[in-house]
């Protein structure tokens, strides 16, 4: 999801329900908006077909997401409900972290309603329905990933008691948004932030610059991340079962406590104990020389991808 922040005092805007949802009002999308979806869909599918995990592609098929035009989320929810018990609702924008977690815990994914304009095809000022629905929803048709997302929401609600949102945000960031998975054919993409970005789809898998490191829960929770450009490290899971095994069976309270005395790690670091699949040159990040591509300035609400605080 895109829309979460940590201002617990805020009330839903006029017209939104108490849980921040609004009607998608699918009939009001224009033909240009539907065409923008179709264009993005074709571009990204072409790029992803050999680079994304097969579960993503089967999710697109199961939900018939390529039927043309912006998906009607009532239809998607009906299909998703039968597959995994999830549904998708639209929200007007920022949603407080607690509401975001509660939705996930209740198997509801909240998505932005709007779609970028044709002029913004390569970037968007904030996550739109293409990022949220194309990027996130196909994997919700996969039972294990669906369970992971619910568990994340439950963990998020608990994290509020431990002042641990930052650590938990790193887990979301390095899995749900920017995760890779090892397959027989090498690493593939499953994170929505990569899946919905043409440039990062190539960079994450094929550039020599970033590290690709085997997933480890505590390692990930210690690792800061970039919000202004491509990631300097991608964490690679073995399977969704592995991700669930490493997270669902864990009592996070002692994990948070154990991490309290630890310093956080910079996004480029490789530790001796890491299971490094690829130690990156970091040439891309170094070449930026203080001039990042400016995702954050172009995408000022990127930080709303996650429950914040967002401390890189
Ligand atoms: Fe997202």
Descriptive overview:
The chain has 312 residues and is of the alpha/beta class. The chain has a single domain, classed as Phenylalanine Hydroxylase (Orthogonal Bundle), CATH 1.10.800.10. 43% of the residues lie in helices and 10% in strands. The protein is built from 14 helices and seven strands. The protein has a five-stranded mixed β-sheet with strand order 4-3-6-5-7. A two-stranded parallel ribbon has the order 1-2. Helix 6 runs antiparallel to helix 7 and helix 6 runs parallel beside helix 11. The longest helix has 20 residues. The radius of gyration is 18 Å and the shape is globular. It starts with 30 loop residues before the first helix and ends in a 14-residue tail after the last helix.
Number of helical segments? 14
Coarse structural class:
alpha/beta
**Spatial sequence of strands, sheet with the most strands:** 4-3-6-5-7
Distance between the termini: 19 Å
Mean pLDDT: 88
Q: In the CATH hierarchy, what is the architecture at level 2?
A: Orthogonal Bundle
> How would you characterize the largest beta sheet?
5 strands, mixed
The helix-strand sequence is HHHEHEHHHEEHHEHEHHEHH
Percent in strands: 5-15%
Bound compounds, please? fe (ii) ion
CATH class: Mainly Alpha
Low-confidence residue ranges: 296-312
CATH H-level name... which superfamily?
Aromatic amino acid hydroxylase
In short, what is this structure?
The protein is of the alpha/beta class and 312 residues long.
